[in-house]
Design goal:
The structure is a single chain. The protein has 427 residues and is mostly beta strands. It has helices spanning 2-16, 40-44, 57-69, 315-319; strands spanning 29-33, 73-83, 86-95, 100-109, 113-125, 130-139, 141-154, 158-170, 177-191, 195-209, 218-232, 243-255, 260-275, 278-291, 330-350, 353-371, 385-396, 399-410, 413-423. The chain has 2 domains: 2-95, membrane protein fhac (Ubiquitin-like (UB roll), Roll); 171-423, Beta Barrel (Porin). The chain has 4 helices and 19 strands. The strands form 2 sheets. It has a 16-stranded antiparallel β-sheet with strand order 4-5-6-7-8-9-10-11-12-13-14-15-16-17-18-19, with no helix packed on it. A 3-stranded mixed β-sheet has the order 1-3-2. A hairpin with a 2-residue loop joins β2 (73-83) and β3 (86-95).
Length: 427
Amino acid sequence: MKLNFKYFIIFINLLLNGFLFSQNNLIDEIQISGNKNTKDKIILREIYQEKNSFLDSSVVKSDIQRLLNLGIFTDVRFEVKTIQDRLILNYHVIEHSLKIIPGFTPIYSEEKGWSYAFFAEIMNFRGLNQSLDAGMIIGEMNTIGISFKDPWIIGNHISFAFDIMLDEWNHTFLPYYLYRDYYGISFGKWWDYKLKLSLDLAFRKEKFSSKDLNFSTDEFKIFNIKPTFSYDKRDVYRNPTTGFLIFSIFDYNHIYNKDTYRLIVTNSFSKYFNFKNFTFGFNTSFSTLFGYDDQKMIKYFGGLNSIRGWKVPSSMNFKDSNDQYRFGNHNLIFSSEIRKDLIKYSSLNIMDLNFEKGLTSLIFYDIGFNSQELESLLISNNLPLIGFGFGLRVPFLGNVIGPDFGWSYYNKNFISSAIHIRVGHKF
């Protein structure tokens, strides 16, 4: 409703200035301003309002949303002005001042524990909305890696990315130390900013080593092919208020040193409604496994990406026959949230540096079914895992970040409480 009010004010301003009564009320020129680092073409290709056409506030609104979705601007505004009887539409962008981010910070992973990260990130690299990251992590997880991403590198919205990562860590619930080498590239194509197809190709080597004589060393050499299909009608990606998102992932892993495969299929549907400045969000996701099954790779419920409020399972949970309901490669999850922006997201200027301010609160309710066999996923005695709680989000480098505080229940019994720190929303 706030955006509609803004466009209403613009409409009144146009009316008062007589533009609507002018004989020449077509847009004569489109200008952009405020971009000191970002190349003009990165902005212009997101603008659909055309010259020599009438001003369409719905098109301009969509232009602004697309520019904000790039994640490199703290704010985007527009104004219509007349100069020598010429009607000019100007898009003014405010660039994020954080372009090169060197850093050292402690990081925490629910699965792995505390580590320390040394990194450098270049945002909006070369002014082309590219990102380049390099760094290392030491501690409970040891990692060295480099990545590059360009959401529109050539042609008609074709994306490209690559990742190289070498890491090692203790297995979450088995007495293994895991070594992983990952080399991946990704290509994508957008159609009309709604339909997207991406293809990830990767070589991955995973070695499971154990000092426990009951667990033998094992190694997997994997060629990974992962196509993803998505249809996206959200308004603002990082903090959507309306629209929906549908995606399907086919994660095919050819384990060529064992002459077998794993195929993980995931489907998800998210829907958002806005009512009286509250956003109501609903998500359904289903994931299942075909092919090679191994307890070292089994999925589980716990942590921020499954049912919130559940802690990541320990080795004690895995050994306990009463906790086996938490483990399985077949799962169905329903999530719901009510979100409210307590502080409107906007640009914040401090000593001529542009940052963002904003605060979103939310309450959530998750319910999920998990099984080690697909046939038993929804049988009557397979009870759901439940989690509910609340969370906070603040803007962070084109996304949002914040904690979720949750409580978990199973079979009408309280299980535990948990705090999850996440970048982005769950859906």
